[in-house]
Amino acid sequence: MAAIGNFSFALVSAEQKTALALANLNLDFTLIKLPPPEEYKDFGNAISERRKKDAEDGSSHIVARKLAALFTQDVDFPKVPNLIKAYGVRASEISQNATCNPRGSRQYGAFADHVGLDGTSVWAAATSGQGAIPVHLLACMLSTMWTGPEATAIWHEILLARKAILQNRIQGTEFQLSDVTAAQIQVSREQLALWDTSARYGEQKTILTPLR
Fold it and tell me: What residue spans define the domains of the chain?
């Protein structure tokens, strides 16, 4: 019986090591850009090239992909397709308004790419797959209730709690490869602060402002 128990433990341990090895091979998932929902495409075309590049290939995209991966597989996000669609329509509508989103030009010199709506986290979420837009909306909610440092600290605590749940799960005999991958995800405080800043000073304030 002891031999059987040892064999079972070795088998589980081997499965965990295999899963960890596969997870390490899959960490480049953060670099993958996915097609945005149709309602968000005009928004993506309206933000500056610098912000769009960061949203698709830079740190903002990486954070959006990581946060989506951490929560999508296990957290039952409200099934709100109409809200997500309406948010995209509204964001695109705002982005077409010259008052809310002035376009950069040569008159701004070196600051041309910094003019207009900071839509980085909206577009990063829109191109990061299932779960990223609800995570972005959570960032907007936190930014309305807390200061930047407070919201960043709250995000940090949320991630610690989520990763503890995943780590506990993969110590058992039943877990998914996605759990192992997500448990290894690292998001720095600096990245969380940038994520909060984009939601706080860009989309959250502008999109809630009535058009004039």
Answer: 2-207
